[in-house]
Amino acid sequence: AQADTxxxxxxxxxxxxxxxxxQKFKEEIEANxxxxxxxxxxxxxxxxxxxxxxxxxxxxxxxxQSPGFTGALIPEAQVFFVPYxxxxxxxxxxxxxxxxxxxxxMFPELYAEQGLELLTMYPEGEVAITTKAPMRSPEDLNxxxxxxxxxxxxxxxxxAFGATPTPLPWGEVYGGLQTNLIQGQENPAFxxxxxxxxxxxxxxxxxxxxxxxxxxxxxxxxxxxxxEEDQELIxxxxxxxxxxxxxxxxxxTEASLDAIRAARPEVTITWLSEEERAPFEASAxxxxxxxxxxxGSRGQEILDQMKADLAAAAEG
Amino acid sequence: MTATILGIxxxxxxxxxxxxxxxxxxTGVGFYWLFGSLDQLETMVQQMMAGIRPASLIAVPMxxxxxxxxxxxxxxxxxxxxxxxxxxxxxxxxAISTAAACTMFGAVSGSTxxxxxAIGSPLRPRMLKAGYKDSFVLALIVNASDxxxxxxxxxxxxxxxxxxxxSIAELFIAGIGPGLLILFLFSIYCWxxxxxxxxxxxxxxGWGARARALQRALWPLGFPAIIIGGIYGGVFxxxxxxxxxxxxxxxxxxxxxxxxDLRGLVATARSTGLVTAVVFILVAAGAAFSWVxxxxxxxxxxxxxxxxxxxxxxxxxxxxxxxxFIGCMFxxxxxxxxxxxxxxxxxVRASGLDPVLVGTLITLQVAIGSATPPxxxxxxxxxxxxxxxxxxxxxxxxxxxxxxxAVSVALIQFPQIALFLRDLAFG
Amino acid sequence: xxxxxxxxxxxxALPGIFGLIDxxxxxxxxxxxxxxxxxxALNVVANVVGRFAFGRSIQSAEEINRILIILITFAGxxxxxxxxxxxxxxxxxxxxxxxxxxxxxxxISLVTxxxxxxxxxxxxxxxxxxxxxxxxxxxxxxxxxxxxxxxPVGFFMAGLQYALTALRNLTAPGVHLSTSLAEAQLPDxxxxxxxxxx
Lengths: 316, 427, 198
Ligand code: NA
Ligand code: NA
Known about the structure:
The complex is a heterotrimer of chains A (316), B (427) and C (198). Chain B has 427 residues and is mainly alpha-helical. Chain B has helices spanning 2-15, 20-35, 41-51, 59-72, 75-87, 93-109, 112-130, 134-146, 155-164, 168-196, 207-216, 222-232, 238-256, 262-295, 298-305, 313-330, 333-351, 355-370, 377-386, 390-395, 397-413, 416-426. Chain B has one domain. Chain B is built from 22 helices and no strands. In chain B, helix 1 packs antiparallel against helix 2 and helix 16 packs antiparallel against helix 21. The model of chain B has no long low-confidence stretch (mean pLDDT 86). Chain C is mostly helical. Chain C has one domain (11-87, 95-185). Chain C has helices at residues 4-8, 16-54, 61-83, 98-133, 144-147, 150-171, and strands at 176-178, 181-182. The longest helix of chain C has 39 residues, at 16-54. The site of one sodium ion has 8 residues of chain B, from helix 18. Chain C: This is TRAP transporter small permease protein. Chain C: It is found in: Cell inner membrane.
């Protein structure tokens, strides 16, 4: 076969989860073919929306974009922002991602409408909330400004949690926390560690409300135009990277938290108990309602299917 | 290819084309070379849009607007009268105050372009009146604004910290040493300039006159209070401080001093818009240009060709300094950091360099590059705001650039300039 | 930068009906430029006041600013071309004799016009692609392509200004830096920004 150069852009740095996934994918492709993969980490070709458009235009062959950012294109993908939908148990979560009908059958159709071949969706880690004061109940979040991405569902979630959601560009978050403009933010543990959020917030709380999900896709025309053999190569590389990232994540949160503890021992790390989570969990309903309002019957279908898939995963 | 693109840019530039054209033409050639046709030029438009998208850019037109209102009205004049009453009798006093004001304002606003406007607009006429040459004044404003990158909060350092995984708190502290050193050296140069060019100091003012100046400046002193107190006090983000300044300027000039009417306001808004557009179209074109460079993996190629893997730590630092310095001569600093930091990451790791030192050096280069011809953003801003020709704006820059480069070399040879405070705080 | 003198100057140097149309366009550009800045100020000020007085930020503030910054940049693109305000490095150009400068200015204007027209075409294509994708701004729920309308228009109008500058240099005596700025009219260096308008 002819040796091609394929370009692959993602939303994080090379040593963060998406970067680790991308490197494994590259390694697999290059080990099993003459093709070359060029990796473009965060910011080098633009922001999330830009690299998505470049993938749609066929300039990039592969793009990793989190469904939450895909909201403008595929509103249904925002379902991953509905709190307390995904399970916290890693095995249950992995089984869900492997077997979900919503992920493996319904979403690919929605992505195809946008000229994208959805190759896989994978978890990046449980989202933790970092704050300046301890938080154990919605009352603790009263008047607390939590930075969220500009997304209606996230805003609704934090409002339901009792906080004051404050959409702020990522570049202003560190400074904003330092100057007390905001008092909290949310991200997976590895990201809290790599972006040094623990330097400017003192309490890391796992409320179990979400696991950050992301997705790898290819330009559909490019993918459909490939030989059977190359398509198989890409699927196999995706599979290998998926397995690798699940292994990699085992203990990633713990390792990140250890690094944080070592760097700044006074930071507290808390997992809320079932009882403490209950009032937060109760708020999920209003966010679901917002999601349905935004996405209509198609959103309802996806949500129902995901719940069914999750029930199946829970039964294992 | 790299040579062709650079050649086109330089030729078009020297012929006297509007500056956006060399950037756009070079980008177009890059697209043609990458994709064999111009069909993908849509992505160039996309990247131009991306260039003017960052939310932090909004602070620029807002500070321009506030400064424009203040200078048309009375606030700026009253503030400067106060400064003059305190330091006007010292040789180079006004110039040194300007440098200090640029540092202070830039530090908190986080934007060198906003600083050029906000401090430059009111102070430049006064410096000219005092007898400083315009080329010196323009160069001083443009270069002193750059110190902003080094004094926290620094957007450049935040981006570097995030991309490279370096402690932002440590970076912030490490920037202070070199920042103050530059301010100190600039002040010395201001003094030498004033002595050599015989810029006459004003007569010393009595305490009564100073008290009167202070009283007249009481209201306008709200501006530094909003900017410095507001941001360090955690009340405002830099963008919000800009908005608060606009609001305060409007209230002061339209209601309290009654020096601006509605017609004047509209005219001010139009001139702010014009200046913003002239600068932002270049920011947009620069973003598209950097996309091509990044997509074609030109930095990787260049680094490989000079054999960076075989170099020692000091040589690596010099290469990094040169790369960021050159990059920022053409493209917006934030974009340069995003594109080049990952490219250098493996080399930095392998050479065992302190990432905080690297970050400080990079920030310093970014600052210098922004004020360096041909495409330094601050130069564009100065041209657009002060309506002086390009050649005039850059004529006085060499001594300043020389000082900045000397500090860079000093930083590479004596990392303690940056790391001393960091080690004190975190050691 | 005093603009009172601009208002006093005839809005267009073109003859007859073209002059009328051109003058009207100039007014529209100037209006959008001022309106863009004022709206942006209103938006950011309201956002700050909202946050302090009511503890709530305007959710769509950032998106409104994005729309306005595009408006300002591209309405300003052609307005600045008309005023001859785009930044250029004229050190070598300035050394040419008058005839050389005139020829050079015709060449520069024509090439710049061609590039602006080409960009206008690709910007239009980009806008239509966005329209086809149906993307919306997440918070305002406005289609993304709507905020891009100014981009092809701005490039086209700027192209037109540069083409007219070439035409003006070809038909009228003297060197013209833009349709409304001849070399002799260059702003007086003594007229500094910040001094009260005459
Ligand atoms: Na700063
Ligand atoms: Na620059």
